[in-house]
Design a protein that fits this description.
One of its GO terms (molecular function) is DNA-binding transcription factor activity. InterPro entries: HTH_MarR-typ, MarR/SlyA-like, WH-like_DNA-bd_sf, WH_DNA-bd_sf. The protein is mostly helical and about 140 residues long. The protein is about 70% helix and about 10% strand. The chain starts with a helix and ends with a helix.
Length: about 140
């Protein structure tokens, strides 16, 4: 065992806390785990200025086309996602995040990520590089 085994345990504890927080958020808003992951993916795509389509979302989540259709149906019924024709190709559907979804996401992530953002901001550039390298090595592409 390495002298840095404590890092493995700290990362595991952070992952468990993350899962617990996401599950609690989902339970409060009647969303399953995949629903929450989809909401996160859609908000991330929107923030990056990228188009969200059912195919893109299915790829992000590793879902079949049929499973993604059912997921989008649930999110639309919950008032979290809208569908609109793609202006560039009217045969394709674009997914849009609703204001309600943005409000839910912002409230959750502001409270949950606030302390994480503060801890990250306190790191020196060299420390941030080490943390980024470590975290990146635990989640290869």
């Amino acid at each position: 065992m390495s002298d840095n085994e404590h890092l493995v345990h700290a990362l595991r504890a952070a992952a468990v806390r993350w899962d617990d927080e996401i599950a609690a958020f989902g339970a409060r808003h009647a969303l399953g785990g995949t629903d929450v992951r989809a909401l996160i993916a859609l908000l991330d795509l929107e923030r990056a200025g990228e188009s969200a389509t059912p195919g893109v979302l299915a790829g992000e989540l590793g879902l079949s086309s049929a499973a993604c259709t059912a997921l989008v149906d649930r999110l639309a019924a919950a008032g979290l996602v809208g569908r609109a024709p793609d202006p560039a190709d009217r045969r394709r559907v674009r997914l849009t995040v609703t204001d309600r979804a943005r409000t839910l996401g912002e409230g959750f992530f502001r409270a949950f990520l606030g302390p994480i953002r503060a801890a990250a901001a306190a790191l020196s550039p060299a420390e941030a590089q080490v943390v980024a390298r470590f975290l990146g090595s635990t989640n290869p592409p």
